[in-house]
C-alpha cells in the first residue's frame, strides 16, 4: 500500500488527516464562530416586543385602573402582535404593585399602570414604602383623567349633595363613608369635601370599589366618592344614586348630575390620573416606542368613545418627558393635601 504523502513530502499514517485537513477544519470552526457571534446582536435586537408583556395593576378587577388597563392591553396586543397580560396585585392603595414594578427588570416586559395614589399620594402617607416614586419609574404616557362621583344608596332620602351634608352635619360622626383605602384619591377627595362643608363622617376603608359599593347598596355604609368608571353602571342601573360629580363641568354621560362646585363649593375640581410607566432604566427606544403606541391607541375614536361611555376622559402627553413633569407636579400637590389633612396609614 502506498503511504499517504502530504505536500512537502512528510508522510502521514494511513487513515489520518494531514496538516491541510487540519487547516480546513480550523477555518470552518472560525467561520462558524464568526457566524454565531454576528447572530448574537441580531437576536438581542429582535423587534420589541418579542414575547408577552405583563401590565401590573395595583387595584382589584372592576376598578377604574383595571378597566383601563385591560382595554389598553387588548389594543396594544392587536397593534404589536404580542399578549399584554394584566396582573392584579391589589393592596395598600396600589403600593404593592408599585413595589413589584420598581424591582422588575427594566426590559420592557413588565409595565405598570401608574396612578395618583401609588405615584403621588402614598409616598406621603406610608412611611416605609419599598419604592421611591420619584426615582424608581420611567414615564411612558398619560392615559386618562378620572372624574369622581359622590354616590349614596338608592333608598337614601337625599336628592342632592347639600341635603346629604345637612343630614351629616345634624349628626356628626354618625354616618360612615367608604373609600378604596387609606390615602387613596377616593379618601382624599372625600376629606376635602367634608372639610369644606364642615361635616364629620367615619371613614371605612375597603380594598376596592366593588366591595365598597356593595355595602352602600346594602345600606351598611352611607356614601362614597369613587371614579365614574367604577360607579357609572350602577348609577344607570338605579342601584346607586349620584349626587355630585367632582369636575368643574358636568359630564356628558350623566348630564343631570350637578357638579360639587354648582352646589355651593366653587372651584372644587378633583380627580385622578392614570398613565403607563415602566421600571427605571428601560431602554429609551422601547420607552419611546411604547409612548407612540399608547398615543396611537388613544387616538382611535372607538377607544375614546368607549372610555367616555365608561366615564373616563382621555388625556395624553406628547412625550415621556412631559408625562414625567406631570408626575412630579402631582407628587408635590397631593403631598400638600396629605399634610393639610394629616392623613396617615393608621387612619
TrEMBL record:
<protein>
    <submittedName>
        <fullName>Tripartite tricarboxylate transporter substrate binding protein</fullName>
    </submittedName>
</protein>
<dbReference type="InterPro" id="IPR042100">
    <property type="entry name" value="Bug_dom1"/>
</dbReference>
<keyword id="KW-0732">Signal</keyword>
<feature type="region of interest" description="Disordered">
    <location>
        <begin position="1"/>
        <end position="20"/>
    </location>
</feature>
<dbReference type="InterPro" id="IPR005064">
    <property type="entry name" value="BUG"/>
</dbReference>
<comment type="similarity">
    <text>Belongs to the UPF0065 (bug) family.</text>
</comment>
<dbReference type="Pfam" id="PF03401">
    <property type="entry name" value="TctC"/>
</dbReference>
<feature type="signal peptide">
    <location>
        <begin position="1"/>
        <end position="44"/>
    </location>
</feature>
<feature type="compositionally biased region" description="Low complexity">
    <location>
        <begin position="8"/>
        <end position="20"/>
    </location>
</feature>
Amino acid at each position: 500500500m502506498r503511504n499517504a504523502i502530504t505536500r512537502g513530502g512528510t508522510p502521514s499514517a494511513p487513515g489520518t488527516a494531514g496538516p491541510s485537513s487540519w487547516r480546513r477544519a480550523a477555518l470552518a470552526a472560525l467561520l462558524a464562530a464568526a457566524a454565531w457571534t454576528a447572530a448574537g446582536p441580531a437576536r438581542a435586537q429582535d423587534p420589541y416586543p418579542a414575547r408577552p408583556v405583563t401590565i401590573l395593576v395595583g387595584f382589584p378587577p372592576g376598578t377604574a385602573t383595571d378597566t383601563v388597563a385591560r382595554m389598553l392591553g387588548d389594543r396594544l396586543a392587536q397593534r404589536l402582535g404580542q399578549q399584554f397580560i394584566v396582573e392584579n396585585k391589589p393592596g395598600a392603595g396600589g403600593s404593592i404593585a408599585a413595589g413589584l414594578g420598581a424591582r422588575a427588570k427594566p426590559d420592557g416586559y413588565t409595565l405598570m399602570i401608574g396612578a395618583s395614589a401609588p405615584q403621588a399620594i402614598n409616598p406621603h402617607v406610608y412611611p416605609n414604602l419599598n419604592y421611591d416614586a420619584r426615582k424608581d419609574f420611567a414615564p411612558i404616557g398619560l392615559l386618562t383623567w378620572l372624574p369622581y362621583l359622590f354616590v349614596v344608596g338608592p333608598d337614601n332620602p337625599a336628592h342632592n349633595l347639600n341635603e346629604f351634608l345637612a343630614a351629616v352635619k345634624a349628626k356628626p360622626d354618625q354616618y360612615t363613608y367608604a373609600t378604596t383605602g387609606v390615602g387613596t384619591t377616593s379618601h382624599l377627595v372625600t376629606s376635602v369635601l367634608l372639610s369644606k362643608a364642615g361635616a364629620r363622617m367615619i371613614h371605612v376603608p375597603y380594598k376596592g370599589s366593588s366591595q365598597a359599593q356593595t355595602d352602600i347598596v346594602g345600606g351598611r355604609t352611607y356614601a362614597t366618592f369613587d371614579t365614574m368608571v367604577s360607579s357609572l353602571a350602577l348609577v344607570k342601573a338605579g342601584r346607586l344614586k349620584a349626587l355630585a360629580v367632582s369636575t368643574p363641568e358636568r359630564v356628558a354621560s350623566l348630564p343631570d348630575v350637578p357638579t360639587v362646585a354648582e352646589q355651593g363649593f366653587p372651584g372644587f375640581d378633583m380627580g385622578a390620573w392614570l398613565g403607563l410607566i415602566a421600571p427605571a432604566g428601560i431602554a429609551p427606544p422601547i420607552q419611546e416606542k411604547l409612548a407612540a403606541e399608547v398615543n396611537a391607541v388613544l387616538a382611535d375614536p372607538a377607544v375614546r368613545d368607549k372610555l367616555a361611555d365608561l366615564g373616563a376622559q382621555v388625556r395624553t402627553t406628547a412625550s415621556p418627558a412631559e408625562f414625567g413633569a406631570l408626575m412630579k407636579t402631582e407628587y408635590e400637590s397631593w403631598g400638600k393635601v396629605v399634610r393639610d389633612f394629616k392623613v396617615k396609614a393608621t387612619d
